[in-house]
Each structure stands twice: as structure tokens, then as C-alpha cells.
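The data are set out underneath:

___
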Amino acid sequence: MKFYLFITLVAILFFSCKQSAIKQSFSSADSLVVHFKDEQSGTVTKTVQTAESKAIKRIIEFMDAKETELYKCGYDGKMFFYKKGQQIQEVDFKMKNDSCNHFAFLLNGKLMSTKMSGEAVDFFDALEKGLPTYY
């Protein structure tokens, strides 16, 4: 009985430590640039940059969400993830339409889309407004 309990605990530990494909793909980023855009004109209205690992990790956590359909409702922002000055990932996002809020990006050569939560919308809204505390 103790043996089965031990095996179960080891299995739980193993599977809980495994990173998702999204986290694996983005976690090496050491800086991030976020462009907020006017959807109609495509003009960048605000740019936010950070090298704060806590903020980058939080955004990756937001992106590591339930996969959604590939919406065709446009984008009002774009993020660029960098490692040592080299762009490693690009992500489009929609945050101003409750029925369509999502992230879209390439993962292992496949276009994928994940749901943007209400908390993520609030986070990006605070960033866009220039609020000092956003996580």
C-alpha cells in the first residue's frame, strides 16, 4: 500500500512540474514590448516596454489559457517577446470585445488562439492607461 502511495505522489510531482508548450516557448523572454493600436486605422496609440520578469511571467500565464477558435474580429494590440535583444515571439491580442477577447500566436509552426480572461483584460487596460501598478 505504501508503495502505491509513493508512486502516486511521484507521478503527481512529475506532472505538476511539467511546463505547458506555451510557457516553454515564451519563458526564455527577458523583455517585452506591447503596442496598443487603434483597430480601425491600425495606428499604434501607446507602447509599453518592460524587462520585469514578474510582469512577463504574468502575461505568459494569461496566454496559457483555454484554446479558442481562430476568431476573425481583428486585433487592438501586439506584443513582441525578446531574449537578449532578439525577437523570439510575436503575439496579437484583442481586449476590447467581450465575445472575442483572445491572444493569437504561432506555437511550433501552428497558429493558435487562447482566451483572454477578464483579469487579463483589466491588466492590459491598466497598462494602456499607464497605471503604475498592474500586477
